[in-house]
Specification:
Strand order of the largest sheet: 3-2-1-4-5-6
Distance between the termini: 31 Å
CATH superfamily of the largest domain: inorganic pyrophosphatase (n-terminal core)
Largest sheet: 6 strands, parallel
Shape: globular
Strand content: 15-25%
CATH topology of the largest domain: inorganic pyrophosphatase (n-terminal core)
Oligomer: single chain
Mean pLDDT: 97
Helix content: 40-55%
Number of strands: 12
Bound molecules: guanosine-5'-monophosphate, manganese (II) ion
Amino acid sequence: MNNSFFEIAQILKENKYFILFSHISADADSFGSCAALWHSLTLADKEAVILLEDNLAENLKFLGKGVKVFQYDSKEGEAFIKEAEKNGGYVSICVDCASVDRFPKREELFWNGKYTVCLDHHLTSKHICDYNYIEPSASATGEILYKLIKSTKMPLDKNVGEAIFAAITTDTGNFQYSNTNKESHLIAAELYDLGVDFNKVSIEIYERSSLAALKLQAMVLSALEIFNNGRCCISFVSQDMLKETGANMDDSEGLVSKLRSIDGVEVSILLREHENNKIKGSLRSKSDADVAKIAQSFGGGGHKKAAGFTLNTSIEEALKRVSEEVIKSI
Ligand code: 5GP
Ligand code: MN
């Protein structure tokens, strides 16, 4: 069962130190929601940090400007933890995720919090924390953050607003996906009153592709296979492709949604080789197919129309296994 915003706000008000956890390979919803909460907490005179265990994507770095974002095992990160512990401990808040396999290296740090809080919108998420607010009908975790901050009268300013907008615009595919609802538009409209520069945020997120990223896209398209009578398509990004194009893995963000836009395709799949035998799979569906179920069959999760998982196999093996599972499930 969810806690109320009031109960969660009490925890925020009664404590001084907070560690915010976005999921690995943070997207703009996870990191933007953390940044929004960081700004609001800081305006409320709280001490907060966002601790990561991997690098932030280039196009999200603007959201971290002026924010205390550190690697969990950095000098700054460790100093914060020490200070918090000297002063009675910290509250751990996981944002846009609800299982420790989404922040594996920070698991111990997370559970060491004197309270744990989860703010999330994934269908497959479980209530694992002391305080939870998981709302699958929210278009983005950013939407939940906005409502929490607004309804409990926590501080709101332009920085909070821009981070919330980044979260909502990306998780709704720029207000296009079926998770977009009246609320997403209403929140965006209210953000105007905070002075949010929508055009700046959109350019930062969508219009700073490198040439290498476009070359990588071309390679992914040449490797694309369409199957199941044109209803499914699958492609991959290998480490070799990254070397050849000079792109990095973040440059493939959003590609799986582009693959879904092919006429007639119901399910698109992109497999990304993060290391040898470590494949991150992304699934998207257009209308009826439930890709969260498919992702769950591989130990992952997500939403009905956008989900992911990790497989410890070769790309060839993953291409075969995932294609077979998708054909079986749709
Ligand atoms: P993406 O394909 O963009 O990485 O993820 C699509 C959606 O599925 C996101 O909402 C993401 O948080 C979720 N997701 C991706 N990978 C995993 C995973 O391994 N486990 C779970 N539970 N969710 C995932
Ligand atoms: Mn999200």
